[in-house]
Amino acid sequence: MIAGKRMLSASSQAHGSVCQGDDSRAALTFCGADLLADPSGALLWPAAGILAVADLHLEKGSAFAARGRMLPPYDTRATLDRLAGLIATARPARVLCLGDSFHDRRAAERMDAADIGQLRALTDAVADWVWITGNHDPEPPQGFGGRVVEELSIGPLTFRHEAEPGAVGELSGHLHPAAAVALAGRRVRERCFAYDAAKLILPAFGSFTGGLNVLDAAFDGLLAPGFEVLMTARGRVYRFPCARLSPDRAR
Fold first, then answer.
1. Tens digits of per-residue pLDDT, 100-141?
2. Which of 79, 87, 105, 172 is the most exposed, having the fewest neighbouring CB atoms within 10 Å of its CB?
3. Domain total for the chain?
4. For strand 212-213 and strand 228-233, is the pairing parallel, antiparallel, or unpaired?
């Protein structure tokens, strides 16, 4: 069991509804499983003791730096610090990383020694740490603990990196979903969970990952027309129906 209270979420409304409680998580029942969406972008399945995160993209900053695009070299540490905080409070029995945990095949070679130590400490602290393979890390680096699988089915749910058309009870990452809405005369765009009755796509957890608008063509054929999003903003989770969402402006 994951520690912490189960939160009740408000029902969907045309203007969007804040899903909050002592920890501001949003509760949803997906394919018979009672889940909690955390403002960090992590997903909790308390009854199964599972904490799931997608698209950590560790060492993305150093990969960009190697190509001459200088970014602050702290994305890995920031991502691991956030993940460590979640693990400390939720105390999961199993952590599922849904692919693209490492930005590329040489990410481990560029990691700072302190970050390597922190990641090893995290995997050692969890009874079952699972690396699901992604397109950026088809062969996650060895030496960090845990086990590697292409996908994992637990009860009614299947966890994989990339969503497959027609799959039911599927949780995935890969697309880095984000949503935009108009509120009080201004446009708000943030990362989000996107879901319908069959699929749930997690936002990217990594610090330098950004997001792709859920109305982008990349999502076509994956989610039913009446899908909803759980938008993460300012430490809370907000629920919006797809009818309230807006596409990105053309550049």
1. 998 777 877 888 899 999 999 999 999 999 999 998 788 888
2. 105
3. 1
4. unpaired
